[in-house]
Amino acid sequence: MRRLRRLAHLVLFCPFSKGLQGRLPGLRVKYVFLVWLGVFAGSWMAYTHYSSYAELCRGHICQVVICDQFRKGIISGSICQDLCHLHQVEWRTCLSSVPGQQVYSGLWQGKEVTIKCGIEESLNSKAGSDGAPRRELVLFDKPSRGTSIKEFREMTLSFLKANLGDLPSLPALVGRVLLMADFNKDNRVSLAEAKSVWALLQRNEFLLLLSLQEKEHASRLLGYCGDLYVTEGVPLSSWPGATLPPLLRPLLPPALHGALQQWLGPAWPWRAKIAMGLLEFVEDLFHGAYGNFYMCETTLANVGYTAKYDFRMADLQQVAPEAAVRRFLRGRRCEHSADCTYGRDCRAPCDTLMRQCKGDLVQPNLAKVCELLRDYLLPGAPAALRPELGKQLRTCTTLSGLASQVEAHHSLVLSHLKSLLWKEISDSRYT
């Protein structure tokens, strides 16, 4: 009986065992291939990350070039000694998003600061035989030797008129530029000081910082050397993806951003306080002392805040003066509205008959900011507030046309939104 059972067992299971044995080599090959693929993908991602980091983060090149020009006497500035001779400016985390604009967190005079320096890609072709960039031939070429202070004043005024418009307030801004150039307070502007300030004015963000220094929502300028400048500490980012490793950010589906905002972002009342600051910043840009400015890249990545949850604009690179946007659009050939885009989202209509861009932007700053605030404020908002807040934000996003034509409506919508938020947070610890 035992033999019969053993025989039956062999008959039943031997074919299965042979089939399993036949599949084992194939399974091994499959698993080996998957492991190899994983190792290859990981190595490629690590290589890509390293290459991207090496391309984006070149602060050491910035410092070498700036200090080389300072030692030659070509440039000057209030932090040159600390940066180049005393080595008291500490470079920390790389925050650059594009290779041409180097951004680092840092430490200077015991303060947390942001260090910003531009690297011109065109300099590579102009490097000398020793490989050192000859930056003075490109960036620090103006004013020329022998320029008087009167000529430099007129040169600066002409530049500001071209970029900000012909405004009665510009002479005061020119005076501020000359005062900043004379950082050592010797009542004269040397050629090195003039070259440095002129190079700084070519940086869009620096020009905006200078124009908005009296406003509380722009970072305060602390010092400069050549076209390298230092502002107050790095604002915390309101974009939840900023806390994640750079390689993971593009993999996040849009639907997950709202959930991350709940988990990683500030509590809702703090978000309301940050939003209040953003709305006040829109007011600062609208009919300010130095004209109108347009926000041409409206994303949460540019919405920052301090440790006390006061709003700070994290990046002013894509905030453009109205005069500069109009100059870009004037007479521009187009087939459709997408051809009439300055930056990422400053778009004007295309006259399809004339095939030219019109000068009026389709969407004002406030409408773009309200689109941003819908996803930022509505999730987690108090239940009693949510219907009215949603209604106000929907009304706000419908604003369109030339800002001067909707000025009254623009101001009314802005006032309603601020009142609604202030009423919710004014009687709490969040103020």
Automatic annotation (TrEMBL):
Belongs to the DIPK family. It is found in: Endoplasmic reticulum membrane. GO terms for cellular component: endoplasmic reticulum membrane. It comes from Sus scrofa (Pig). Signal peptide: none annotated. This is Divergent protein kinase domain 1B. It is a single-pass type II membrane protein. The chain crosses the membrane at residues 29-47. The keyword Phosphoprotein does not apply. Residues 22-180 form the FAM69 N-terminal domain. Its main location: endoplasmic reticulum. It comes from the Eukaryota. Keywords: Disulfide bond, Endoplasmic reticulum, Membrane, Signal-anchor, Transmembrane, Transmembrane helix.
